[in-house]
Amino acid sequence: MKVTFRKETNGVILAVFGQLWAWWDTLLTAYTHNGQHTAIDLEHYRNKTTPARPEEYAPLLAELRAAGYDDLQIVHRLPLRKIYADFC
Q1: Alpha-carbon distance 69 to 3, whole Å?
Q2: DSSP secondary structure letters along the chain
Q3: Structure pTM?
Q4: Strand pairing partners for 2?
Q5: pLDDT for 27-82, tens place per residue?
């Protein structure tokens, strides 16, 4: 499963799964520390986050693997054009 790690302006690190839509059509599934699944809309992803560095997301990656996410493929950016095309 493809995942990218993003840093919000408040410093929170998110794992964003580009292939998993959340419960509404414009929201992607994301994961934060301590088993917290959440959703992130595409505009927030584009405008309110920046790529996280490996040393910033290493603890979250370890947490994901411990929770059973062992098939992760880390990508540096999500294919937003394809995501938008799939939505529209």
Answers
A1: 10
A2: -EEEEEEETTS-EEEEEEEEE-SSTTEEEEEETTTEEEEEEHHHHHHHEEEPPHHHHHHHHHHHHHTT----EE-SS--HHHHHHHH-
A3: 0.83
A4: 73
A5: 788 999 866 888 888 888 889 999 999 999 999 999 999 989 988 999 987 766 66
